[in-house]
């Protein structure tokens, strides 16, 4: 558990990239081996080497990436992907062998919120800094002319852009929102309310469309869960979200802008459909998207996975996500603890928000697989190991083909 928290600090705050005295410290090369060795001294090795269904799907996804990369042309980025996915699988296993109980999961999620709130303070201070520099000396990101801003929040490392930095904030948001409703006492709500307000402000300062839409999705799911959704309440939530869209600044909701940011995204989505139709089984290989388009990557994780690894790769990716949600659902049904129900619901909403953001920015980072690993840790507490029925496999297969058709139709209508 403590190694998981240490990795969260290394990933989000990244002191090894900017804190004097720590710059250049090989955090991964030190932390991961120590973490691996520690599993044998705390009697967690059996969790490390077991392969429940979720783990087998992740392993199959990684192996399929290797297959599609060898079948297709490769480049330096391909090698980077192969190394990254191999490391992310190891990280996934380390987390699942470190967070075994719901108490440990609660502690890790609590630390996740604390760590992100540090970056909330950094972001708000950065936005108002006279010299336009953040704590790590990073400048503001580029801003749309329509926003009237001089820049947007960004961080460092893998979060060195407004769109990806917004994901840091939206990832923590559901865990803060859960304290605003029972079973938590009013004193907790008084603390959580200003934290939520600060998160909303920081998300707004990123100026990210994906972050804005992810925030709306998180709010909608939060209200749907804690209001125990009915048809009338669903209509109420829909009305509230439409109202938020109506009053939102145009640069957050417009699909056309002076820099053609939104239009460029749809163009590379169209390329993703074309490469999938041309190479439906093996795709074009990981790391080759920008070579195919001649300009940019997909700016959409699902389209990039589909275009580069084919329809089988997209299916494995979706199955991994589906089993993560199913772990949370089954544990939610099993436990009688309202706080545990609240925790797993918040984790599920956090993953859902991440997926919404990934529709506008390619977010294939270890952040996502850490969240999926945390969801999978609930599997250790299930009365029966998770299994998939043939009906579920059929539905996921239908979702893969449906996704291809939906994106194709959307692209055609957009450029009509």
Give unreliable regions as ranges: 244-260
Distance between the termini: 52 Å
Number of helices: 17
Mean pLDDT: 87
Sheet of most strands:
none
Number of strands: 0
Shape: globular
Quick structural gist:
The protein has about 425 residues and is mainly α.
Q: How would you describe this structure to a colleague?
A:
The protein is mainly alpha-helical and 416 residues long. It has one domain (2-13, 52-414). Helix content is 69%, strand content 0%. The chain contains 17 helices and no strands. The chain is globular.
Distinctive features:
single chain, 416 residues, mainly alpha, 69% helix
List the helices and strands and how they pair.
Layout: H1 2-13, H2 27-41, H3 45-49, H4 53-71, H5 76-96, H6 102-127, H7 162-177, H8 186-206, H9 209-226, H10 231-247, H11 250-253, H12 261-278, H13 289-293, H14 301-334, H15 338-357, H16 366-376, H17 390-414
Helix pairs in contact: 1-6, 4-5, 4-14, 5-16, 6-7, 6-8, 7-8, 7-9, 7-15, 9-10, 9-15, 12-14, 12-17, 14-15, 14-16, 14-17, 15-16
């Amino acid at each position: 558990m403590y190694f998981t928290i240490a990795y969260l600090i290394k990933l989000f705050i990244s002191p090894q990239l900017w804190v004097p005295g720590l710059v250049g410290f090989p955090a991964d090369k030190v932390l991961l081996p120590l973490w691996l060795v520690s599993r044998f001294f705390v009697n967690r090795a059996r969790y490390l080497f077991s392969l429940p269904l979720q783990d087998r799907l992740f392993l199959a996804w990684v192996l399929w990436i290797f297959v599609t990369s060898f079948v297709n042309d490769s480049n330096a980025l391909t090698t980077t992907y192969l190394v990254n996915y191999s490391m992310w699988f190891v990280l996934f296993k380390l987390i699942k062998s470190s967070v075994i109980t719901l108490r440990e999961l609660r502690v890790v999620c609590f630390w996740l919120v604390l760590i992100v709130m540090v970056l909330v303070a950094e972001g708000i201070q950065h936005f108002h800094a006279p010299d336009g520099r953040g704590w790590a000396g990073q400048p503001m990101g580029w801003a749309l002319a329509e926003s009237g801003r001089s820049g947007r929040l960004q961080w460092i490392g893998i979060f060195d852009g407004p769109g990806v930095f917004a994901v840091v904030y939206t990832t923590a948001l559901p865990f803060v929102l859960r304290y605003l409703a029972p079973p938590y006492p009013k004193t907790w709500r008084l603390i959580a309310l200003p934290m939520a307000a600060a998160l909303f402000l920081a998300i707004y300062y990123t100026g990210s469309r994906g972050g804005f839409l992810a925030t709306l999705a998180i709010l909608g799911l939060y209200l749907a869960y804690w209001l125990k959704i009915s048809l009338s309440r669903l209509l109420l939530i829909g009305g509230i979200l439409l109202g938020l869209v109506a009053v939102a600044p145009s640069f957050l909701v417009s699909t056309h802008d002076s820099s053609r940011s939104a239009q460029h995204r749809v163009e590379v989505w169209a390329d993703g459909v074309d490469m999938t139709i041309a190479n439906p089984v093996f795709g074009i290989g990981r790391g080759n998207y920008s070579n195919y388009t001649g300009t940019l990557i997909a700016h959409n994780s699902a389209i990039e996975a589909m275009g580069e690894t084919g329809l089988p790769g997209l299916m494995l990716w979706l199955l991994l996500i589906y089993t993560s949600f199913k772990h949370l659902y089954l544990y939610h049904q099993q436990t009688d603890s309202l706080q545990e129900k609240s925790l797993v619901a918040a984790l599920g909403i956090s993953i859902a928000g991440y997926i919404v953001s990934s529709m506008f920015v390619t977010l294939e980072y270890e952040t996502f697989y850490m969240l999926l690993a945390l969801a999978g840790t609930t599997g250790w507490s299930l009365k029966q190991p998770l299994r998939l029925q043939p009906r579920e496999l059929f539905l996921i297969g239908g979702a893969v083909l449906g996704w291809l058709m939906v994106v194709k139709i959307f692209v055609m209508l957009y450029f009509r």
